[in-house]
Amino acid sequence: MTATATPKPTDTPFLTDVKELRKRARAHLETGNVTQSYTGDVDQAIAILQNVLATEIVCVLRYTMHSIAATGIASEGVRDEFAEHAKEEQEHMMMVAERIDQLGGKPNFNPEGLATRSASQYAEGNNLVDMIKENYIAERIAVDHYRELIRYFADNDPTTRVMLESILATEEEHTNDMHDLLVAHEGKPMLPAD
Ligand SMILES: [Fe+2]
Ligand SMILES: [Fe+2]
Question: Which terminus of the chain is less hemmed in, N or C, by CB atoms within 10 Å?
Answer without folding.
Answer: N
